[in-house]
Amino acid sequence: MGPYEKIGPTFERLRAWAAPRGLTGPLAVGVAVYLDDMSTTPAANLRTQAAISVPDDIVGDDEVHVRTLPAGRYVALRHNGPYVRLSESYAALYAWLEAGGGTRGEGPIVEVYLNDPHMTAPADLETEIRLPLA
Question: How far apart are CA 97 and CA 103, in angstroms?
Answer without folding.
Answer: 6
